[in-house]
Write a structure and sequence with these properties.
Blueprint lengths: L7 E3 L10 E4 L5 E9 L1 H4 L5 E4 L2 E8 L4 E2 L2 E6 L3 E3 L5 H15 L7 E13 L4 E12 L2 E14 L2 E11 L9 E2 L4 E18 L4
Antiparallel strand pairs: 1-9, 2-5, 2-14, 3-4, 3-14, 4-8, 5-6, 5-7, 7-9, 9-10, 10-11, 11-12, 12-14, 13-14
């Protein structure tokens, strides 16, 4: 909850000379997808978790001026992998179906998110909240995808965290079943992220 008197500012385009640029460090970040099971696995309380391994992006952020620049994020579709403790056989089958039938990684190798409409609110001395409204390009379909991001400014590092949901059917993806129908997933997916971004110092 925001504190009384929190300052709010709309995003302004930030290019070189208009504010610090922060580059996402994927190795220190976490990005996961939670699918929700139906059928047999639902009765067992098992919802598959998918890890997004390879992604890159950046954002402009001016803490003093309460401004944010364009946010970009590119995900390697083929880098998604199962995090659950399952047999190697089941893992290979789930990932095969996910990449070939759901994501169609050969046809759509990247997932992209881009936003220039960002409103920043100061919550505390080094804590902020961002309301982001951007375009998500996923499986050949582009749709608006709003995000609410909690931001901590830690010296020359930004930490942004949040979650959002989407429906596979909105991106022309039909939920599939694997392992002989044992694993079936619902239409809705939940994404959770904790992004670490470091301030980029331009070369002189």
């Amino acid at each position: 909850m925001e504190k009384p008197g929190a300052q709010v500012a709309e995003a302004a385009p930030m290019t070189n000379g208009h504010g610090p640029r922060f580059v996402i460090d994927a190795r220190r970040s976490r990005f996961t997808v939670q699918a929700f099971a139906t059928g047999v696995l639902a009765a067992m309380g098992h919802d598959p978790t998918i890890g997004i391994r390879t992604f890159a992006g950046e954002v402009g952020f001016d803490a003093d001026g309460l401004r944010a620049g364009r946010l970009t994020l590119t995900i390697d579709s083929a880098s998604l992998s199962v995090l659950d403790d399952v047999s190697d056989k089941d893992r290979r089958e789930i990932e095969r179906v996910m990449k070939s039938e759901v994501l169609e990684v050969e046809k759509y190798p990247e997932i992209n998110y881009e936003a220039s409409q960002i409103a920043i609110a100061r919550v505390d001395s080094a804590l902020y909240k961002a309301a982001v409204n951007g375009d998500l390009r996923f499986h050949g379909v582009t749709r608006k995808q709003p995000l609410t991001v909690r931001i901590a400014m830690l010296g020359t590092m930004l930490r942004g965290s949040g979650e959002f949901t989407l429906k596979q059917s909105d991106f022309q993806i039909k939920p599939v079943s694997v392992a002989g129908g044992i694993l079936k997933v619902k239409d809705e997916l939940k994404f959770s992220f904790e992004m670490i971004a470091n301030r980029h110092e331009p070369e002189e």
